[in-house]
Write a structure and sequence with these properties.
The relative contact order is 0.10. The protein is an all-alpha fold and 53 residues long. It contains two helices and no strands.
Amino acid sequence: MSNEIERFFEMQDEAASLAFLENKGDELTDILVAALEDALKILSGEIRPETLH
């Protein structure tokens, strides 16, 4: 995994922790949904890689 991806996940973890500590459920939900969407994009790219002809 590249450093850029690792840093992205670290930032997501920090934002989620902060929202949890501040009891901001809506923001935490938004962060989690965004993380799941990003994970799905990454996984779908691995499953169906685009080919150029």
